[in-house]
Amino acid sequence: MIIDTNAYLGFFAFRQLRHNTAEGLLRLMDEKGIDRAMVSSASAITYRDAQAGNEEVAAAVDSHRDRLIPFAVINPAYAGWKDDLKICHEQFGMKGLRLYPKWHNYALSDRPCLDLIHEATGRGMVVSVPIRVEDYRQRSWLVDVPDVPLDEIVALVRACPKARFILLNGIGYTRTLLGQKNGGLPANYWIEISRLTALLANEVGELVSRLGADRVVFGSGMPFKYPDPSLLKLEVLDAPPEVKQKIRSANAARLLQPQR
Fold first, then answer.
1. Which CATH number do you get for residue 171?
2. What number is the average pLDDT over the span 194-208?
3. Strands (E), the chain
4. How many domains does the chain have?
């Protein structure tokens, strides 16, 4: 089994996406042998009111709950975020959040953001943070949105030790405390592989060695990206089959289990 922790539905304001409907994404997943995927709204990244994107995703996955696992995009700088979170969790059955601090113009250290993470954690929801949406070199001339600095992630995981974070679309973890065996950080974050190397610097293998195989998860970034590179990384990774299976699905499956 393969569980993709990094997938999306809907439209993105600055480029056309293929396979961005529930049916289209499922066809791509079937073609590539991916069983389930955590999905959030690509549209909500640039909507003024992100909740509209959550409503679209909830409707899109309604007939596909066995395979598409909805995540909410919540903007803590938006006045109604508490109501949005309640609706997304209680009515839409969303299992986690995706946060876009650089796109939504807030800091991860802001009190509303920390309050949101606390509320979501109390509901047993996973919090994922995409380090980037798309390559900075391909950005539209209308926007100038930087990647989330990894030192801000370090501060976040320290500030919220009871939360469970999935770090998406990132690279360079081994050069920071996030990728250090004795970095002094709580073991409350998991790292997704879509931008990591499995050859050359072999950041996937380094993270498995330093953090443990239980802390690395599969992700593709589809439909912003095709899943083939991530699948190939697991093929060439120099690790036992049981380690690869943890990355493919077992770690993500545990994250989706209800918290006691």
1. 3.20.20.140
2. 93
3. 3-9, 36-41, 68-73, 96-98, 126-130, 165-168, 189-192, 216-217
4. 1
